[in-house]
Design brief:
alpha/beta; Rossmann fold; 10 helices; globular; binds S-adenosylmethionine; Methyltransf_25
């Protein structure tokens, strides 16, 4: 499985994903509210550089950072089509940016300035548990003390099998009105490339990589497609 294969659905079917986001099937509305409130509180008085792993078209970024001074935004993704949408949006909003077409699991790109804030929404689940652990450990080593991390990603219920999870999800998408031709592409992608974790496993992954959990909550309007939202901080290394 290559990273290009994993991202092919986003390259070929961005409209389908956009429809899912616009209709809040994954909880982007709640994510925007929670992330904006944290960012406003924490960076009210100090400029911050931000890195976004699996940024897609950076749709939420302008609104999420409207009331703080963004000292540069670095978006990382492998879908060129999404990156060109991101470029347009960031330019329209006057956000100084760098957009990089590279594998997010490689960690912080060389030559990028050290971020005070990391953000990743619905992207890290494309790696299995080992890849996720390596990703969080790498970022912990690459970022400075007090760096914050806003993470949102999909969850599976404890003791729920993956087949049951995907079956419930397919019914949920159909009930929400996802077009049948989109649904088959979406479900093929999810069955092949998604690795949801339970809340307990997400917490263990981030904590054992060194990150301190400041806050966690469930996200998403529907029980069939739960997501976790976490605010993390780079604690002092002893
Ligand atoms: C579900 S979308 C999320 C986009 C955006 N963060 C959002 O919340 O709407 C997942 C994004 O992660 C990207 N992605 C998945 N695996 C990746 C990888 N290994 N390297 C870089 N980007 C990846 C996809 O291309 C896609 O844009």
């Amino acid at each position: 499985m290559t990273a290009d294969e994993v991202t092919s659905v986003f390259k070929d079917q961005w409209n389908a994903y956009q429809w899912v986001v616009d209709n809040n099937l994954m909880g982007h509305r709640e994510l925007l509210t929670a992330a904006t409130s944290f960012i406003e509180d924490r960076y009210r008085d100090s400029p911050v550089a931000m890195a976004d792993f699996g940024c897609g078209n950076s749709l939420l970024i302008p609104e999420m950072t409207r009331s703080v001074q963004l000292d540069g935004y670095c978006g990382i993704d492998l879908a060129e089509n999404a990156l060109s949408m991101a470029k347009q949006l960031l330019e329209c909003n006057g956000i100084k940016h760098q957009l990089l077409c590279q594998d997010l699991f490689s960690g912080m790109p060389e030559n990028s300035s050290s971020p005070g804030l990391i953000y990743s929404a619905f992207a890290v689940h494309h790696g299995d548990q080992q890849k996720k652990r390596q990703f969080f450990s790498k970022l912990f080593q690459q970022t400075p003390d007090h760096c914050a991390f806003v993470l949102a990603d999909i969850m599976i219920h404890p003791h729920q099998g993956f087949d049951d999870y995907t079956q419930m999800l397919e019914q949920y998408f159909a009930k929400q009105g996802v077009r049948p031709d989109w649904l088959s592409h979406i479900m093929t992608h999810i069955r092949q490339y998604d690795y949801p974790e339970t809340e307990e496993t997400w917490l263990d992954i981030v904590r054992s990589s060194g990150w301190k959990v400041l806050q966690k909550q469930s996200l998403g309007p529907h029980d069939e497609y739960p997501a976790i939202f976490m605010l993390l901080e780079h604690g002092k290394v002893a």
